[in-house]
C-alpha cells in the first residue's frame, strides 16, 4: 500500500517565527487529536495544501504546542489563522465549511499574487 503524502507541515513554538517570517502567506490549522471536527476538516486542509503549493500550510497540534496555542488565545479547535507577510490577517474558530475555506484561500492567494 502506498504511503499517504502530506502537503502540510507541522508547526511548533520553535518553528513558528521562522515559518511566518520566511513565507509570504501561511495558513495554520490549530487542531487536537481528540477533536472530531478537526478530523472532518483535515482532508479539506490537505487538499488545499496540495492545490496551492506556493502557500505554506501548517498544522499546530494544540496538545503538543500548548505555548503557541496559548500565545494566540486558541480556545477551541479547529481554529484557522492566516498570516500575510508576518501579519495575522484572518482567524476563525470552529469547523470552516469546505466552500468557505476554498474561497478564503483563493482570495488570499489572489491578493498575494497582485501584491496586496
Layout of helices and strands:
Blueprint: E1 9-10, H1 13-22, E2 25-31, H2 36-51, E3 56-61, H3 66-71, E4 79-84, E5 87-93, H4 98-113
Parallel strand pairs: 1-3, 2-3
Antiparallel strand pairs: 2-4, 4-5
Helix pairs in contact: 2-4
Structure description:
The protein is α/β, with parallel strands linked by helices and 116 residues long. It has one domain: Glutaredoxin, CATH 3.40.30.10. It is built from four helices and five strands, in the order E-H-E-H-E-H-E-E-H. The protein has a five-stranded mixed beta sheet with strand order 1-3-2-4-5. The chain is globular and about 40 Å long. It starts with 8 loop residues before the first strand and ends with a helix. The mean pLDDT is 92.
Q: Any descriptors?
A:
24% strand, Glutaredoxin, 116 residues, 4 helices, alpha/beta, five-stranded mixed β-sheet
The rough form would be described as globular
Strand content: 15-25%
Alpha-beta content class? alpha/beta
Return the string of H and E elements: EHEHEHEEH
CATH topology value: Glutaredoxin
Number of domains: 1
Please report the distance between the alpha carbons of the first and last residues: 44 Å
Q: Please, what is the CATH homologous superfamily?
A: Glutaredoxin
CATH level-1 class: Alpha Beta
Amino acid at each position: 500500500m502506498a504511503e499517504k503524502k502530506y502537503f502540510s507541515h507541522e508547526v511548533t513554538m520553535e518553528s513558528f517565527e521562522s515559518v511566518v517570517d520566511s513565507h509570504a502567506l501561511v495558513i495554520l490549522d490549530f487542531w487536537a487529536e481528540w477533536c472530531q471536527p478537526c478530523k472532518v476538516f483535515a482532508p479539506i486542509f490537505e487538499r488545499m495544501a496540495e492545490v496551492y503549493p506556493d502557500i505554506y500550510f501548517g498544522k499546530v497540534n494544540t496538545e503538543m504546542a500548548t505555548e503557541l496555542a496559548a500565545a494566540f488565545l486558541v480556545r477551541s479547535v479547529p481554529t484557522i489563522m492566516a498570516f500575510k507577510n508576518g501579519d495575522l490577517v484572518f482567524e476563525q474558530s470552529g469547523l470552516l465549511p469546505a466552500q468557505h475555506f476554498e474561497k478564503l484561500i483563493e482570495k488570499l492567494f489572489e491578493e498575494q499574487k497582485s501584491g496586496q
